[in-house]
Amino acid sequence: xxxxxxxxxxxxxxxxxxxxxxxxxxxxxxxxxxxxxxxxxxxxxxxxxxxxxxxxxxxxxxxxxxxxxxxxxxxxxxxxxxxxxxxxxxxxxxxxxxxxxxxxxxxxxxxxxxxxxxxxxxxxxxxxxxxxxxxxxxxxxxxxxxxxxxxxxxxxxxxxxxxxxxxxxxxxxxxxxxxxxxxxxxxxxxxxxxxxxxxxxxxxxxxxxxxxxxxxxxxxxxxxxxxxxxxxxxxxxxxxxxxxxxxxxxxxxxxxxxxxxxxxxxxxxxxxxxxxxxxxxxxxxxxxxxxxxxxxxxxxxxxxxxxxxxxxxxxxxxxxxxxxxxxxxxxxxxxxxxxxxxxxxxxxxxxxxxxxxxxxxxxxxxxxxxxxxxxxxxxxxxxxxxxxxxxxxxxxxxxxxxxxxxxxxxxxxxxxxxxxxxxxxxxxxxxxxxxxxxxxxxxxxxxxxxxxxxxxxxxxxxxxxxxxxxxxxxxxxxxxxxxxxxxxxxxxxxxxxxxxxxxxxxxxxxxxxxxxxxxxxxxxxxxxxxxxxxxxxxxxxxxxxxxxxxxxxxxxxxxxxxxxxxxxxxxxxxxxxxxxxxxxxxxxxxxxxxxxxxxxxxxxxxxxxxxxxxxxxxxxxxxxxxxxxxxxxxxxxxxxxxxxxxxxxxxxx
Amino acid sequence: xxxxxxxxxxxxxxxxxxxxxxxxxxxxxxxxxxxxxxxxxxxxxxxxxxxxxxxxxxxxxxxxxxxxxxxxxxxxxxxxxxxxxxxxxxxxxxxxxxxxxxxxxxxxxxxxxxxxxxxxxxxxxxxxxxxxxxxxxxxxxxxxxxxxxxxxxxxxxxxxxxxxxxxxxxxxxxxxxxxxxxxxxxxxxxxxxxxxxxxxxxxxxxxxxxxxxxxxxxxxxxxxxxxxxxxxxxxxxxxxxxxxxxxxxxxxxxxxxxxxxxxxxxxxxxxxxxxxxxxxxxxxxxxxxxxxxxxxxxxxxxxxxxxxxxxxxxxxxxxxxxxxxxxxxxxxxxxxxxxxxxxxxxxxxxxxxxxxxxxxxxxxxxxxxxxxxxxxxxxxxxxxxxxxxxxxxxxxxxxxxxxxxxxxxxxxxxxxxxxxxxxxxxxxxxxxxxxxxxxxxxxxxxxxxxxxxxxxxxxxxxxxxxxxxxxxxxxxxxxxxxxxxxx
Lengths: 653, 487
Description:
The complex is a heterodimer of chains A (653) and B (487).
Chain A (H helix, E strand, L loop, with lengths): L1 H21 L5 H28 L7 E11 L2 E9 L1 H24 L6 H20 L3 H19 L6 H32 L15 H18 L8 H4 L5 H10 L4 H8 L1 H6 L1 H24 L3 H21 L3 H28 L12 H4 L1 H15 L5 H14 L3 H29 L5 H8 L4 H12 L6 H5 L10 H16 L4 E2 L3 E2 H6 L11 H29 L8 H4 L4 H47 L7 H22 L1
Antiparallel strand pairs in A: 1-2, 3-4
Chain B lengths: L1 H17 L4 H25 L8 E9 L4 E7 L1 H24 L4 H20 L3 H22 L4 H30 L13 H14 L9 H7 L2 H24 L3 H28 L3 H20 L4 H32 L15 H14 L6 H13 L4 H26 L16 H19 L2 H4 L6 H8 L12
Antiparallel strand pairs in B: 1-2
């Protein structure tokens, strides 16, 4: 089992190294196949490990394996070790399972790009980093994975590096995540100071009288979690991250990396339980993010940004879940969200692809007839997102909401926010869906799809579009753009995900069949058990709110097809977070840097040295007349000096 | 073995100066000597007992017997790593110079090898006077290397660098004389340490200027900008480490008491340099400027680790010294490579070089990521240990260091993107080629060392101050070691 886990971790790394080192020797097509098979191989290894773990008795399912001592100093040792337990197992399966589907999809999506190899190298690197994060056997190694996923995310957001907006977005994502890395690191350092340990059991060793320390450690971890998971107030990088290729958005910014914060809280739940206020804070942040992101999603016009805000909002639910101690429900929603959100992104990717890089939903419409398969799959994803009964999102979201109700008054407040969030989800999902697929075909759509009977005309259109500011470099490279819905390598993974999004929720059906809950019981036992009534209320109210949202959106956008929302500046400017941070963080830092450069560095540091030099030189100039070459003046000087010295000696004596 | 590490480059330097060789022979001899030096170092490592904390390969010859001055060299484990970093980075710098085709090769390569000998001697000297001689011997080749082969502003830069350095080292000379006479010996393995604040400050002045520590860095921006890139790599990567080593070997270990007393002052300067350097680096208009101020910041971090006066901090500092030596080498050499292609290091005129130049892009990305200490890199490991170590001096220092993590990301990403990304800069032409084999030959080994250390940073941190009780002997008087550290 341990061997399988190591293979699972190292296969994607081997894939990344092979692709990077082989460079141009590797045919482009092979790079994609190599990346896909290394991730799929990791998935196979994860499945083997899973099956073997099923054979263990539930209390004996935690295994640590240490390869060597990675870092040590004095009595502090950090092993390069992996932890294999039911919790990391779930993540391994999700990461490699969804990951291999998305990498496979990428083969079709990235076909024709000039730098496919680099893309697949980065993707494999990401999967390795994510697995390291998930399997890391101690907090330091988890932090390493944590940083490396940030690195791969940076590389992939900025993949089209000739586009200034993509580069800016990549840098922003890295820097915001570095803030989270820093607080995470401080938490680990504090833990080492208190306990000398960095394993996940170390929290219990913090002396209980030290409430402040526990709180700071938990806050540091929470800081890392909200930065990585794009929760308020460190969320601003995620919408910008949509500059990356769409499969990247699906894998990193929907299915896996952004949910790492949820995993972190579940993994370190014992410290959060020692610091209940911080845990409440996590849940509160999640609930507020549900609302804020849901509101902003209402007015976004870029299809990927709508989904990105939706992702933030859905991760907000997961934070509520782990924040109220319903860890299994949080993880459950993480898994189903990985299915339906990846599906949503990949469907959007097919649409964007077919439209030559167009992402503005106002320019889309009437795609239902032209792209029936995509339509069907996007419908499934949207239903799951809304929480339509019996789809995967229904079971997981309502499990979280029921868990919130079981938390008492605070939980009830969270529950209400979650309900409003469900309403918003219904509205923005429906708005996006009908704008893209229903109504009449727009000019952009007809240009790319309806008249695309002849290949020549189509390439001409694509080429013409390449000059468009919206078209990205890769699409310009796609002279042989795919007609309609893309090749089989794109459709098959999407179809598999559609099935999972539809039925994946049956892993856990209320309290009748608690697959996820039981599986995670030994690692993350729930703090509160919702009653049957709470389950029922949530499971009925949740979908009702969602459907109410659908109705509202349908009546607003469906009839008039009024895609231009009322100019609601607060929402369109995304609550002014970017502007705020420019004011309070970036601006002052830049000003300080400028101040240092102009005022301190020039005049003071370098100037003082220069002044000292000039002073010495001036002194020399002053003293030069003494060396006038006249013996009589030297004699006078010597005699005078002797006289002074004699007086001094006499006086001292 | 230890003296051979000094004599080999010194002999090669003399041979190049004295023998009437042509360019090819000079270049061949210089490269061969550099490679032989690395081989010699590897041979030393193999025979070295890394679990011991005491001095090894000690070699002594009497020099001025009456004054108890001797030619005494030897290696502690931590100096072994610094010597290794030195010979590797110097070899890369020499290879760069070969590739760049420096004029007057006999003078140039002789000076580089002489510098290598001097730096190695600083790390190996076990006699204060020998230490001083080696310390000043570094200045001679640097004076010429910057002053003759530097950029347009080289005269002013050299002048400033030399005056600054001499001001510091004369104070150190005075301190050495007094200290040696007080102790009755100049042998650093026999001195008993001192509690004199004045003597300590005499030493500290030299180290603070050479490192440099904020605000004694007035010479730094010009020197790093006007030097040839490979000399800047050596200045920032290797020569600055002699100062950090001085803070460790002579500051903390010989002057434990005064070090404890001024610890907060030194930490404050180090932390100020860390934040200040990172911020100023972010505003610099050129590649060298960014690297110069990032070097100031990193030296702040290293000194912070040393003055944490904590085993974790010291181990982190030693690792970080090696890391920064290697990464400075990579970054300055890459900056030189870019400057040669574009004719400028002005970031406003660069950009878009990643397209069609995958090897340059990959090496600069890897180097930049290690420079900003991405988690998992060896620089991260060093930084982590330093910040964990300095925590015992006060959580505020760790907090400042954590802020610097974010600032480092900002300036390093700016540098990466300025060269590689966005639209093509006006100074970048299509004729600017990707890295070629000779360039890879000096960039890749440095990166390979960094990657190897990233996989196993404990190679250094577990083997710098010995194991178990071995570790405690030299450090017990300065470190408040817990019983667990000294079984």
